[in-house]
Amino acid sequence: MSPPISGLFAVQDVVDAGRGVIAISSLSQDTVVFKSEQPSAHVLFRQYRKEVCARCFSYDRGRTLPIRDNAIGKVFCTRECQSWWVEEQGRLGSEAWKQLHSFLQLKSKVITNAHGLPMLAAKPTRDEVQAAWDEAEDRAGSMRRELSSASQFKADKVLQRALQQSWSQAVDPDILSYLLSGILEYARHPEQWQTEVSDLAMDETPYRSIPDLKAQCDSFLQLTAITPVELLPSVTPQVCQTLINAASHNSFGIHSGSEDGDEYLGYGLYPEASYFNHSCRPNIAKRRVGSAWEFRAIRDIDIGEECCITYLGGDEKELTVVERRSRLKQFWGFESPPDIH
Ligand SMILES: C[S@@+](CC[C@H](N)C(=O)[O-])C[C@H]1O[C@@H](n2cnc3c(N)ncnc32)[C@H](O)[C@@H]1O
């Protein structure tokens, strides 16, 4: 499986836009067409770590949320949310988040945000991307070999040396969190993950710049060094690259309001909700409900019509047609005639 099955719509090929969601029954205005599951990978940006519930993504106008778990560096709006989170993550997940939190505390002086950097340089080419990941894979391989033959004392030294020497000193918590959440989901359901995530529209050159590419490869290496041994088989360049390539054209922004609010809190990958194409005159509105999404018809939709959302949020809706098209080209990789989409 990958595309969702529904009596209301089918996922089909559409002209010049890959697959899309086509109504297979008449949908009256306000029909809830689809509700998503939890994200397969997501990040809540570090700057909001005390303000956004790690389970349901609720945000209370910048107030620090009441339930704080210092071992993992996350907050929750209620004890119930905290218990759900612990249950969903399981022992391995909780352990991995603890390790990441300790690592970030240790490295607090070299924390950076590669995604926040302006796009000054050209995007890396496919060859540059391939070379960077090949190199990262080699380094990870030698680190694993050294680690598997080292005593506990020596293992700590190997990690320390690796962290000091091989990579840029920078540590990007947002990339690390996004990758770790996706790696954990992969470790929990490898086959389902493989079909759902790998089936998404992929951007093979998703990196904003060479420093961004390097930050992503470094994050993979850092996760190789710090995650529990049991999780290591899932910490691979393939899994990380799939997560990065998929996010570029499929991620949903997590905003503070139920629709597009003013605070951009993070983003998530929702594979089964990723088949809606863009239209500047959408007939479907999406709304975040906790950590999931609901898609609702905003007018009557006939059988055979394509169900489209808008990929543009907030101020972007006010852009001119030319500006919109350039934004869609830059961030979503497509050009569409304004009269069609
Ligand atoms: C979230 S996916 C939508 C599903 C996608 N069509 C597929 O086959 O998996 C986003 C990608 O779909 C394509 N797309 C979405 N809306 C489009 C449009 N109006 N015109 C052309 N391509 C579009 C672009 O390639 C975009 O990066």
From TrEMBL:
Top-level taxon of the source organism: Eukaryota
Protein name: Histone-lysine N-methyltransferase set-6
Source taxonomy: Eukaryota, Fungi, Dikarya, Ascomycota, Pezizomycotina
